[in-house]
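Lab meeting, item 3. Inverse folding demo.
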């Protein structure tokens, strides 16, 4: 609208009126929420990513239900290495500057490191003979480290899954093995070995 008034102080003044119409923002929503991979071994890299639509301004992110070894961050992408096995429902809550809220869930399955078997073959030997200690693992990712304890005299711990043991003394021995993977520690597994 144009208004002119030539009678004010000898100068012509002009006013313009403009109408502004605001268009409401598209509501904030989670378009996609991906766990990659959704099934992984303990110690492997997990990437959680959320894709949003709509909303206004800066967004804040709060992650919950994360596997041990993962911690929340205010980012649409979270990367971590789970340190414990289990099934987890991860939730992301997102808010924007206008007070909009959205959320999503993803399921993550982490297979934990475990000792599936620990054997001595044979488990009873004559003095001067050898026994083979064998550790079988399940789950986990990376390079495991082995520490044996309770070995008969003449046998020394080595960082191996298969240990050859030749006792130089008789007796009954309870041998244990601890396996670590990154910062994951598996409880001891034990077995009996007799040398005669």
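The presenter then showed the designed sequence:
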């Amino acid at each position: 609208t144009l208004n002119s008034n030539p009678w004010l102080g000898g100068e012509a003044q002009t006013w313009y009126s403009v109408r502004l119409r605001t268009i409401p923002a598209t509501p904030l929503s989670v378009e996609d929420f991906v766990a990659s991979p959704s099934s992984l071994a303990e110690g492997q890299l997990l990437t959680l990513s959320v894709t949003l639509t709509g909303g206004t301004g800066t967004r804040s992110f709060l992650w919950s239900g994360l596997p041990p070894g993962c911690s929340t961050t205010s980012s649409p992408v979270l990367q971590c290495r789970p340190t414990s096995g289990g099934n987890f429902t991860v939730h992301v809550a997102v808010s924007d500057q206008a007070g909009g809220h959205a959320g999503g869930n993803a399921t993550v399955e982490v297979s934990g490191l475990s000792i599936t078997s620990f054997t001595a073959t044979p488990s009873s030997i004559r003095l001067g003979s050898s026994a083979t200690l064998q550790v079988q693992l399940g789950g986990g990712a990376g390079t495991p480290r082995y520490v044996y304890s309770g070995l008969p005299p003449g046998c020394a711990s080595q960082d191996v899954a298969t240990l050859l043991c030749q006792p130089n003394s008789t007796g009954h021995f309870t041998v244990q093995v601890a396996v670590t993977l990154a910062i994951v520690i598996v409880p001891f597994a034990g077995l009996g070995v007799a040398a005669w």
